[in-house]
# Entry
Amino acid sequence: MKARSLIMIAGAAAVLVSATWWAARPAPREWSTDSEEALSAFLAGREATQKLYFLEAIEHMRTALKHDEDFVAARLGLADALASAGQGDAARAERDRALEADASSLTPRERRGVELARLRRDGGQREVLALLEKSVQEFPGDPTLTRSLASMYYGRGDAEAAVAWFEKTLELAPNDGLSYNTLGYIEMGRGDFAAAEANLKRYAFIAPDQANPHDSLGELYTITGRWNEAIAEFRRALEVNPRFFPAWEHLARLHVLEGNEPAALEATERFCGLAGLGEAECEVRRAVMRAWVAWIRKDDAALTAEVEALRTAPGYNDVLMLRHFAALGAREFESAVEIEEKLEASLKKAGAEEKGPAQGALKELLVAARLVSSGDFATAVNSAAAADRLFNYNADGGQGVLKLIARALHVEALIASGRLSEARSVLASLEAVNPRFPGVNELRAGVRGR
# Structure
């Protein structure tokens, strides 16, 4: 698992930037609590966080705070675990309470953690990155800090720097599973699927009692069309830990690609129940799953109906894309352009660095879809190619699926433009990654038909 998929799972990046700060086993009196019970529960919570077992981490951190409500490290750990479990409001409340603590009573390590948390709330990525770089120098030999720094570079799209710091982490801690996990996603993004699989299988070997390695392998196999193996890995993750709710969401996404709405909705129900989502938020997720299945089936009427139910839903990327695709199905091109302009405005307001490297690609993808729908195939070729180039194959943030959608649009535009030789070449590159991707059969027929 790497946090976000087509529906963004809140907080995974926050864990890699901050919660892992607490992962090294402390020397005596590195923590401010005098309660052995609180410290024991806190350590158990950190171990659960390292496994990405956020529900268990929440329970342990709450136990720690029950024994010592002033234990700031435990409260920050609770905030990160809550965020990673999708409970954003509760996470913000716990973080803000931790930041109100009297810093004079904290250890140096805890004060640095508070400083990082405050920057994450009030500052930007550059400020957090600078403080992490400073921390690596002040606390040398701590693999949790080098991993956090590597993860920060990874989130900024600087794969080379991320790899260098993950390799440094593995020098300090050769069996650091989370480093192998993210290295797997980096190689996935580059399209080196064999190297990605090798890293993720190394992670599974190191941590045979953990669910996340199997979940990550399942995401890799989803992107590459090895869907039976993906299902087996997601199921294996849930056998290892039945409460590992991200595997249910990823399984739902796979069933969407298959066009299997009942299975996607069943997996979504299991996800909602384990993640503790309210009925309103769960219904948004159900509607998104139904809408994506409708889009894959090219059922414009069903897509429009589901998007209508999402009109007041939060502006997740999924919801934005589905609204756009529904507008195209209804031939409401002006509405589609308005959605593109809102996305462009949000990019300018937040800055590309804060929004992430995939956001510009998303704009190109939406433009390409509109141009194909409106019959401007010659221009659509350029937009679809740009989106394909800007996205990578990483399952993190759903980029891999979006890249394949862009590639499919590219083939469609080339076919309609009569550029069959190029269409065959791009189609071959799509099939080489995922021959089972939705629409591939139709594209094959389109190339043959010309």
Notes: Residues 3-28, 352-357 have pLDDT under 50 and may be disordered. The chain is about 75% helix and 0% strand. The two ends are 42 Å apart (CA to CA). The CA atoms of residues 219 and 395 lie 6 Å apart.
